[in-house]
Design brief:
This protein is α+β, with helices and mostly antiparallel strands and 163 residues long. It has two domains: 32 residues, no CATH class; 125 residues, Immunoglobulin-like (Sandwich).
């Protein structure tokens, strides 16, 4: 009898907990694997980046499958043109980290703290002047380096973070 009372009280207890605990339990119960593990991002910036002009970089964490599919179709130019509307429409289903990168910049590690535990994916958009998609996905890596080249960028996963 005491076990049933305890089990009945768990939902009441959890409703008073922070959203992260409830989200984690819901994810575990539904067996939803998170695809976002990113904790830190590094930048390697070319001296001649973007023909000696700054580049805006947005790292976008997405928490909804449909939104991820929609954003994955956009080029960086399309994304930046629609960014504010995307942010308004997405609500809590998106986190956006924005960086202004200048040629030759030495930027230390940037910590990433997703607002939810069940991220569906991460896209990086870079506003280069050169033609191209300038969009990359980040896999389930904990740490990555963005190699910011003259005309485009690459995502390089760090195999042994912390070394």
């Amino acid at each position: 009898m005491k076990k049933w009372i305890l089990l009945a009280c768990i939902p009441l207890f959890l409703s008073g907990c922070g959203g992260d605990i409830v989200t984690a339990i819901k994810s575990a119960v539904n067996m939803e694997p998170t695809k976002v593990w990113l904790q830190r991002i590094y930048f390697e910036v070319d001296e001649k980046l973007n023909d000696d002009a700054p580049v805006t970089v947005d790292l976008v964490i997405i928490y909804d499958d449909n939104l991820l599919k929609e954003l994955a179709k956009l080029t960086a130019a399309q994304y930046f043109q629609k960014k504010e509307q995307i942010r308004r429409d997405a609500g809590n289903n998106i986190d956006i980290y924005t960086y202004e990168i200048v040629p030759g910049q030495n930027l230390g590690p940037q910590n990433i703290k997703p607002s939810q535990l069940t991220g569906k994916g991460i896209l990086v958009f870079a506003r280069y002047a050169a033609p191209g998609d300038h969009r990359q996905a980040i896999g389930p890596d904990r740490e990555v380096t963005l190699q910011m080249g003259v005309k485009d960028f690459q995502v390089i996963p760090l195999k042994n973070p912390g070394d």
